[in-house]
Amino acid sequence: MKKTKNTIIEIIIFMCGTLSVIFVVSIFIFLLKESLGFFREYNILKFITGRNWYPDSNEPSFGIFPMVIGSFLVTFGACIIAVPIGVMAALYISEIAPKYVHDILKFLVELMATIPSVVIGLIGMCTIVPFVKNFFNIPTGLTAFSGSIMLAFMVMPTIVTISEDAIHSVPWKYREGALALGATKWQAIRRIVLKEARPGIIAAIMLGIGRLIGETMAVMMITGNSASIPKSIFSPVRTMTATIAAEMGEVVKCDIHYKALFAVGLVLFIITFIVNFIADFFLGKNK
Amino acid sequence: MSNIEIKNFNMYYTNFHALKNININIAEKRVTAIIGPSGCGKSSLLRSINRINDTVDGVHTSGEINISGKNIYNIEVNVGILRRNVGMVFQRPNPFPISIYENVAFGLKVNRIYSNKNVIDDVIEKSLKAVLLWNHVKDKLRKSALSLTLEQQQRLCIARVIAVAPSIILLDEPCSSLDPIATQKIEELIMQLSNKYTIVLVTHNMQQAARISRSTAFMFLGKLIEFDDTEKIFTNPSIKETEDYVSGRFG
Ligand SMILES: Nc1ncnc2c1ncn2[C@@H]1O[C@H](COP(=O)(O)OP(=O)(O)OP(=O)(O)O)[C@@H](O)[C@H]1O
Ligand SMILES: [Mg+2]
Questions:
Q1: pLDDT at residue A287 greater than cutoff 80
Q2: Is A178 on the interface with B (CB under 8 A)?
Q3: Out of 3.40.50.300, 3.40.50.10610, 3.40.640.10, 3.40.50.2300, which CATH number does the structure's domain B4-246 have?
Q4: Sequence-ordered strand ranges (E) for A244-285
Q5: What gap in Å lies between CA A44 and CA A208, rounded to an integer?
Q6: N or C terminus: fewer CB in 10 A for chain A?
Q7: Is residue A281 scored above 60 in pLDDT?
Q8: Which residues, by Cβ under 5 Å, contact ligand 2, an ion?
């Protein structure tokens, strides 16, 4: 009886696993098919390096270069803000905070991870956008910089939680050995604990980046949606995801514009795949 | 001078009274063993001598531990300097997961003892020679310390302590994760080192205490029961509990 129950559960789990693989592979195949259709009509080099995205003009051009730059700029900015703060927070939570503070903070960070990104986007629109506009005295607060700040908030839970796990899993005996040699707590952390936790922290950052690049709604609301190459982090930008989300509703099915959006999707898919692959590599190394 | 004089020393883990009014005078430049059944407080006592127990939540103490006449629990004592002077080797070898070279250099760097690379190289060589590891590792100093065998790792842990020039070395069951041959080699090393360092050795293994120590302290339930020459403790103890323990009647 118990045995058949086990077998049934195993079969269900196996099917779920297989199904998810099948889904991912078919999504990839679908993306590839539509994109290949697009590349037959539009030169792939012009697609990647083109500086203009005018899908609706008489002589349409589909250059995604500005969006790639936009995506990377927003993501990179968010990393610059989120990585040091996130890693410090993880260090504080796991090494310095007393037990009850540790528990409260871990709970709050995990809670923060569950806030839907549209909500963060909405809050950012009412707070960060006017703040950036007034503080830097620029014509609009809808900039890459605002997007970066907000994405930094969104990615912080991922970075804090996973880095904290990595730091926490460094065996106590290393800290003790270091302290017993006359090292201060900070020296033990910097020279031994952080070194040992580094693969895990890199994985945390990579998973964070993967999440940032794929993030859509919040950035669309906040970064100004201008598909030209940004001059600085204080210019409006548009990301790849925002482009797909904004235009998908308006395109005619099977039209070249429609296919072009799938090609953008393919580029995104490949980038996030690579980033997650690197994260997995470092997570594996941590074990 | 590097004798350890422990006076009316008590230690608590929050409310648990782990060390009860310990009084003992540990002489310099010899091996002193601490024996006793599991949970009697041997490690707690040892870990009080370099104040590494300060890092455990809820630990508090009363009484004195005087090293060379100075109470290490005085507020003005710098624990970093104290721990440099009172090295510690743990039960399970715990080399850092970095290179062999960096393991030995660690104490020199964090304490900023030397900055000249040649001098550091020199100290590292001397320390590794002192633990008879040099010939084996001299061509692979940049390899990870975790690639060594357990015995070699324990030697490395001793070397990294020696590198910062302590006068006292505390060893907490240093052979308990080693095989008999490795144990014998480490014991030989400990005896050699006792010419230069004051050594306090916690051990479960009574033969080991009998083989390598000059004085032995027997502890039971957080109290120091008897402290005397090793020979006396093992052949003619004054207290019945000691006799029962060394003759294997309990523990
Ligand atoms: N961090 C701690 N918190 C609370 N109690 C502790 C802690 N560490 C040790 N104790 C208790 O203090 C007592 C003495 O422990 P200690 O580790 O000093 O014994 P020991 O003689 O070294 O034993 P063993 O031979 O098993 O290593 C034990 O009863 C133990 O349960
Ligand atoms: Mg112990």
A1: no
A2: yes
A3: 3.40.50.300
A4: none
A5: 29
A6: N
A7: yes
A8: B 43
Please, are residues B202 and B171 in contact by the beta-carbon 8 Å criterion?
yes
Residue B183 CA to residue B180 CA, distance in Å, equals 5
Q: Where are the domains of chain B?
A: 4-246
User: What is the pTM assigned to this prediction?
Assistant: 0.82
Instruction: Look at residue A60 and give its three-state secondary structure.
Output: coil
pLDDT digits 0-9 by tens, A149-165: 999 999 999 999 999 99
- For residue range B90-140, list pLDDT tens digits in order: 999 999 999 999 999 999 999 988 888 999 999 999 999 999 999 999 999
Chain B neighbors of A180, CB-CB under 8 A:
50, 52, 83, 87-88, 90, 161
ipTM over cut 0.85: yes
Q: How far is the CA of A182 from the centre of ligand 2 (A)?
A: 21
CB contact B140 to A (< 8 Å): no
Name the residue among A109, A278, A268 with its Cα closest to residue A206. A278
Pocket of ligand 1, beta carbon within 6 A: B 13, 16, 18, 36, 38-44, 56, 204
> Smallest CA–CA separation between A170 and chain B, in Å?
10
Q: Which of B92, B98, B110 sits opposite A183 (nearest CB)?
A: B110
Report the separation in Å between the CA atom of A187 and the middle of ligand 1, taken as the mean of its atom positions. 27
- Where do the H-state alpha helices sit in A169-255? 172-180, 185-188, 194-214, 217-222, 240-247
Nearest residue by C-alpha to atom 26 in ligand 1: B38
At A201 the pLDDT is 93
